[in-house]
Design goal:
105 residues, five-stranded antiparallel sheet, two-stranded parallel sheet
């Protein structure tokens, strides 16, 4: 039996970093964040407000945390957050239905 997802993915606009995908989940939790994924390697939650001088993120996949974004990828993502912080936050507010408790799906 396949489990059905209870959320949709909403692409982050104007995110163009080769090999990476960025998206919001339509149903997610605080703090305001978006997901960045390198297919088959890793997925991280990028924290919009606290990514300032350094990229603030948590690893969603893989659980063993042996694969991380490269320093070049981290810098590119951080530059994107810094340049687009206000729009990212407004998009989070508009596109994400915040849930108090969520599983780690």
């Amino acid at each position: 039996m396949q489990r059905r997802s209870t959320f949709d993915f909403v692409k982050v606009e104007n995110f163009y970093i080769h090999g990476l995908e960025a998206f919001f989940r339509s149903s997610d939790h605080h703090p305001p964040h978006f997901h960045v994924k390198k297919k088959g390697q890793w997925e991280i939650r990028v924290h919009i407000i606290t990514s300032t001088e350094k990229l603030h993120y948590s690893v969603k996949f893989p659980k063993n945390k042996k694969q991380f974004p490269s320093s070049k990828e981290e810098k590119s993502i951080l530059d994107f957050v810094i340049k687009n912080r206000e729009k990212l936050y407004l998009d989070w507010e508009a596109k994400v239905c915040v849930k108090e408790k969520m599983s780690d799906d």
